[in-house]
Amino acid sequence: MLSQSSRSATRRVRVLCALAALLALFFAMPGVTFAQSGVDGFGPYMHTRWTAADGAPIGVASIAQTPDGWIWLGSARGLYRFDGVTFERAPTPPGSRFERASVRTLLVSRAGELWVGFNKAAGVAVFRGGRLVDTGMTNPPDAINRLVELADGTVLAIKSQDALDNRTFLWRGGRWTPADKQLNVPRGNISAACQSRDGTYWIGIGLPSTAALYHFSPRDPRFVSANRQLDTVMSCASDRDGRVWLRDRQGLRLLVDAAGRLVSNAPTLLPPTPGFALAPAIFDAHGGVWQATGAAGIVWSPAAPVSRPAIAPQGLRFTAAQGLSDDLTIFVLADSENNIWVGTDMGLDRFKRSIAQSDPLISGDPAEGYMLAQTGPELYIASSNGVFQVAPGATRKIIDDSLGGICGGATTGFWAVNLANYFRFDSARRPPFAPPPAGTMGRCAEDRTGRLWSIDARRRPVWHDASGWHDVSDKIPGAGHSNLVTTPQGEAAYTSKDRLIRLVGDQARVTPFPGASIGAVTMVAPGRRDMFVAGEDALLRIRGDAVARIDWRRIPWIVGVRALVQADDGFTWIRSDRALTRLSTSALDRAFDDPKATLARTSFDERDGLRAFLQPFFVGPSMAMASDGRLWELDRNGPSFIDPASLVADRRPPPVVIRSIAAGGATYLDPANLVFAPGTRSLDIAFTALRQKVPERARFRYQLEGVDDGWVDAGAKRTVSYSNLGPGAYRFRVIAANGDGVWNKDGATLSFRIKPTFVQSWPFYALCALAFAAVLYGVYALRVRAVANSIRSHMAERLSERERIARELHDTLLQSVQSLTLRFQLAVDDLPKNEPARPALEQAIDRADDLIVQGRDRVRDLRSLHGAADAAQIVADVYAQQGFGPDVSLDITTQGASRPLAALVAEELSAIANEALFNTRRHAGASRVDVLIDYGRAFTLRIADDGRGIPEDVLAQGGRDGHYGLSGMHERGRKLGGSLALARRPTGGTELTLIVPGSIAYAASGRGLLARFGKR
Question: Which of 179, 275, 338, 373 could staple 406 via S-S, CB 3.0–4.6 A?
Fold first, then answer.
């Protein structure tokens, strides 16, 4: 690649003149090596800040992390907690003394509880059950500045400022006790308190002109003098080995060693920092020291050997000018994920170790560009300041001046490309030679035969040997992309339109790209055995002449690849503009071979510290794997490396927490078994996952049982809203995965209940059911009465018709027959006694008289029905008329109060009973007839005998052919609006049951609400 700056010819001459000496120096003696430390903006750390605009509190005076992973912030606006994404203020009880107080100190007890010390004489609270619980300190001081947990769980509360009494308090037995005298607390300001490995607390007590060191055991918290004078302005810090370090105006030095022994005359490890020495300091997991300065930002110093003091650098200072939320830094904390949290007066800052590290020995101007070349295990980086060789554990500069371009050799060294000449940098010390006659595009590649290939200004491939430059056949396609590379088989290769050209001797091996166009070519790179070509729309693998394709529609993230490296450990690294992806090489092969195969990956981006990649117009290799396993890349800020060994996946399931639930205008933190007021219809649930390397990558699934059909994929969303909820018990579940795809399948569960309103309660439903039943009954009663009235109307019509027929028979037929009989009688009386015809005529007249009597009886029957008749009497009369013998007994049983039957009902009842008893006498051969009459809501007549029983075929057919007695009974029952059933008795015999609605069966009394209602 040509350098992005224009370089003068004289500068090139100086490079060539110095080359021989540099070569001799390079191969005659070992290079000077330097220790590597990543410096990327602020050491090896990436920075994120949150201010009030992001919801962060101001005046963050204390920071703590509880075992569940919450980051807690004690601030001027109260207590907050942070999950890496959302700030949440702990509510204070209305009217409590914490409501307007600021938090001065935090303590996480061994039990995992958070203790909070306030100013404004608010005392101490414990965060428990989602709220601050007042511990009830009587007459608290104006501020609690420190909280310490002793060996037995006792909590010691300390006021730092000097006072006559009530500076220390002990929490024992559920109450606070003033402890100044008990603990022998000396006069003075308590300005430092740190714990050594053996548990001893070391306390700095300051007076206006002097200061002294005290200590106390966690088992006996009485202050004991250590007989050591201190600076009046001081603080202390404990490292991970249990040593205590003193920080004062002279710098940072060891105070107590790992064995708990006081160190005398310890030399200074770090020089003093700007700002205020009372501000705290911490040691990170890598041995670095972070020092708050009070007013000058934050200072980080890399680890320095304790035995060699004063060799550690001054440190790097990060201020508001570089992006810190504020220069007034108050507190520093290293959390369980090795993140550094800095509390400032304007917000919160986090420093997280970046995966991309820089080598401070590789310098240059990014505006003039960087170049990279690799020859076997050798890695070279060229910049405006020269060429650097990267080797395991060492980086050395091998050329002092800049070059126009470099490319790897076939065996050793590299090729340097300038506008004026080419030369090889290796032990052979070959002389330089001129560039191609047509000019150069800046790229070159050496094949396995030792030929140097280049693309000239005509975009034609040319090659060089001892006799000079040579053109290839015009039949060989020109280069459409100037990225000339060497294949794994040692051939020079480039792309031309939609095809790959591989140069073998004087011939070209052309492999066209099948299918749709891949778009503009973004990369040509060799793999372990294959060639890869990337475009805007696809990634191609070329194995021999076989081309396999992964399209953007199938795997969207795999297109637009800018660099690809396949490592010896079986992983492939793919770089796009905004992400670096690591995946299994075998999985990538499967994805090429099987269109249905999935492609699992691990992705890194700017949230991991990855920097912006090179501009798309960059030509040449931009990523390479060094022999020590580090992955180097060129980005817009210069070269950086990633150590794959440090990219350890987090296999711990993330703790899942239901942060809060909001309903009815109230928010409940850490909710559990809540009961909501009647009428609650909507609620909002917030949840999160803690202890995340990259909190924004957490993924969630949730389910409200009984509402959601199954798990709902929420992605990165951490809240859910429900509406139109009814009363009842609910169970909400949420699970989460961390950025490495490890799921916590147990997750978190919240059970809650919504009380019903009166109209949602069971008494209301019962009343509604009763009302509905009453309405149904009323409708049913009206319907029954309508049917009864209809039947009564028909029966009244029948009665009227019978009376009319009776009148007609009496007034016409019977009267006429009687008159005719009288005339015949007169005629017979005139006949002689011995007239032979007289006896016959007299017999005829007698018969006529009998007919007149029968006719009158029938007329009487038509006019005088069984109105208001007793059913038992009707059955008894019918039984008597049937002429049963003495060997058949009759038993009539009644239930309920006897009620008179309607006239026509009594008539139909008589007919049905007559037919039933007739069949019993004629067919059953019974010895007993039982009759049950039930005067219930419906009238029931049951006639049963103990005879042989009705045949099954007759019962199934409903009668015998040509016989209509049974069918007639059924018809009479239906005409009454009732039902009639015949059945064989299990003990033998036949049973008939007639059921008629009471509104039809009984004679109307004119009483009752429904009776009156039905008549309207």
Answer: 373
What distances in angstroms separate CA 854 from CA 708, 819, 851, one per listed residue? 84, 16, 5
Q: Enumerate residues 6+ apart whose C-beta is below 8 A from 505.
A: 449
- Mean pLDDT across the chain, nearest whole number? 86
**pLDDT computed for residue 183 by the predictor:** 92
Residue 717 lies in a domain: yes
Q: Are 835 and 784 in the same domain?
A: yes
* Host domain of residue 562: 513-647
Cα dihedral 380/383/388/392 (nearest 10):
-60
Question: Using one digit for the tens of pLDDT, what is the confidence trace for 298-314?
Answer: 999 887 655 444 444 56
| In the block, residue with structure tokens 């490296």 | 565
pLDDT attached to residue 542: 97
Does one domain contain both 882 and 1007? yes
668 and 642, same structural domain?
no
Statement to judge: residues 912 and 996 lie in one domain = yes
pLDDT for 154 beyond 50: yes
- Residue 143: predicted pLDDT: 94
Segment (H or E) for 575: strand 571-575
Compute how many other C-beta atoms are within 10 angstroms of the C-beta atom of residue 730: 20
Phi, psi (deg, nearest 5) at residue 764: -65, -40
Residue 493: name the closest of 480, 473, 576, 567 by CA: 480
Beta bridge partners of 112: none
Pairing state between β 928-935 and 889-895: parallel
860 and 813 share one domain: yes
* CATH number, domain containing residue 1004: 3.30.565.10
pLDDT band of residue 861 (cuts 50, 70, 90) is low
Distance CA 489, CA 586 (A): 20
**Residue 480, in any domain of the structure:** no
**In 3D, which of 689, 722, 718 has the Cα closest to residue 704?**
722
How far is Cα 941 from Cα 891, in angstroms, rounded to an integer?
Answer: 13
Q: What letter does residue 766 receive in the DSSP assignment?
A: H
Beta pairing class for 674-676 and 743-754: parallel
- Give the CATH number of the domain where residue 690 resides: 2.60.40.10
Residues 891 and 1004 in one domain: yes
Which phi and psi (to 5°) does residue 169 adopt? -140, 140
Residues 6+ positions from 977 with CB-CB distance below 8 Å = 787, 788, 791, 996, 997, 1000
Q: Which of 350, 329, 331 is nearest to 340 (CA)?
A: 350
803 residue type, one letter: E
What is the sign of the dihedral through the CA atoms of 915, 919, 920 and 921? positive
pLDDT for 7: 38
Report the amino acid identity of residue 3: S
Which of 864, 892, 914 is where one domain is finished? 864
pLDDT at position 200: 92
**Mapping DSSP to helix (H, G, I), strand (E, B) and coil, where does residue 800 land?**
helix
Tokens 């507190």 locate to 331
Is residue 902, in this structure, part of any structural domain at all? yes
Q: Which distant-in-sequence residues (6+ apart) come within 8 Å of 538 by Cβ?
A: 516, 518, 519, 549, 550, 551, 552, 559
> Residue 102 has what pLDDT?
96
Mean pLDDT of 936-965: 84
C-alpha closest to that of 549 among 579, 594, 583: 594
With a CB cutoff of 8 Å and minimum separation 6, the contacts of 162 are: 187, 188, 189, 207
The CATH number assigned to the domain holding 784 equals 1.10.287
pTM over 0.90: no
Residues 996 and 879 in one domain: yes
As for how many domains the chain has, the answer is 5
Annotate 345-401 with DSSP letters as a single string: SSEEEEEEE-SEE--TT----GGG--EEEEETTEEEEEETTEEEEEETTEEEEEESS
Q: At 332, list the tokens.
A: 């520093």
* Cβ proximity of 160 and 141 under 8 Å: no
Shared domain check, 672 and 738: yes
Rounded to 10°, the helix 815-829/838-863 angle is 160
End position of a domain, from candidates 391, 408, 434: 434
Does 183 reside within a domain? no
Q: How far is CA 717 from the centre of its chain?
A: 8
